[in-house]
Amino acid sequence: MMILLGWLLAEAVAAQPEGVRLDTLQVSYVDFQGQTQQGIIICNTTIAQDLSEIFQKLYEAKYPIERIRPISDYADDDERSMRANNTSCYCYRPIAGSTKLSKHALGLAIDVNPLYNPCVRRKKDGTLLVQPATGKPYVDRSKTFKYKITKRDLCYRLFIQHGFQWGGSWRSLKDYQHFEK
Prior knowledge:
Number of strands: 10
Distance between the termini: 29 Å
Strand order of the largest sheet: 5-10-8
Radius of gyration: 15 Å
């Protein structure tokens, strides 16, 4: 396992922006079938301790997370990872529609259960852009469904307690899966 973790970190380091230091965390989590699993999170060293503590508390509370894998397991394709409902942190990419690097490219943002907590943005023509595209059934946050992150949710409360911002509180777009520092 240590060889695998070292290889994953070396792979991520090759694409990271200058000055960014990454760490590889192995975390336990409870999947949607109630089974304990081991996940890997590649993140900025400045948030590694926060993420370790948050995911330990989520695990202890049996908070369901479908999967936690590095984005490299999805050929570094963010949409593929989100469609698989993969919780991940580091992903070297710009902000959608921009040349500015995403907080994910700095290892300072994490997306949790992204299929059920999509990113929703209204385009200039009035239509909605939903990421992942398969997350459209979960755009209406007034509906009741499993795995939805809200301000009453344990996941939300833990991230906020650790000083993260939630994309679900943003005005210009709603990124319900997203927590960043």
